Amino acid sequence: MGFVVEMIKIVSFDVDGTLVEHGFVDLVWNEGMPRLYAMKYSIDFQAAKEILRKKYDEIGDEDLRWYLPDYWFRELGLEGNPANLIRQYKDKVKIFPEVKEVLKDLSGRYELIVTSNASREFLEVSLVELEDYLDYIFSSTSDFGLVRKSHKFYWQICDILQVRPSEIAHIGDHERFDFEVPREVGINSFLIDRTGRINGDHVVRDLREFASKLP
After folding, report:
1. Domain 10-21+94-212 carries which CATH code?
2. Per-residue pLDDT reduced to its tens digit, 92-143
3. CA dihedral defined by 168, 169, 175, 181, rounded to 10 degrees?
4. Per residue in 67-97, is it b (16+ CB within 10 Å) or e — as a string?
5. pTM exceeds cut of 0.90
6. Where exactly are the structural domains of the chain?
7. Closest by alpha carbon to 32, among 47, 45, 21?
8. What are phi and psi of 11, to 5 degrees?
């Protein structure tokens, strides 16, 4: 897919699977939360983990509450601050090897933004080593009350930044919400597939390859 405008002003990045590995977020939901629940109600960790898995499934990922740590602390009767729990796992954030180098290079040529459906509590931890390179960080859940990076989400980003969709290049690892949806809006979108399973002109293996495609 070629660029549809003479100039790209904004480069947009998804987070999990694009800038950082998925493991950090999964650990918070599937280890941190169950451990607090097990301590609160004096039950076995594995039993707590199964209870929370069922509760997560009952809400489902089409519901905004599913993404919000504050909601789950209230719902589960947990004590403390969810942000503190998330910070306990900060050493589990794994940035992909090429990310800092690429962001440093691109930051001198474009405005760099993050567009994610992760809540801000997670983004504040996962992006702490990268925030100096970023001009804006947008969370669809925390900032716009949207569970997906929908057409509406991308249009709102364009409105806030006062740019045309064609002046943005976006990269992410979800075929629908990082490639197809932004492309339908008019954004120059790319799919990152670090596994090598997917091929196509719009597919890149890492951020170096993505950067090489920018004008």
Report:
1. 3.40.50.1000
2. 999 999 999 999 999 989 999 999 999 999 999 999 999 999 999 999 999 9
3. 10
4. bbbebbbeebebeeebeebbeebeebbeebe
5. yes
6. 10-21+94-212, 23-91
7. 45
8. -115, 125
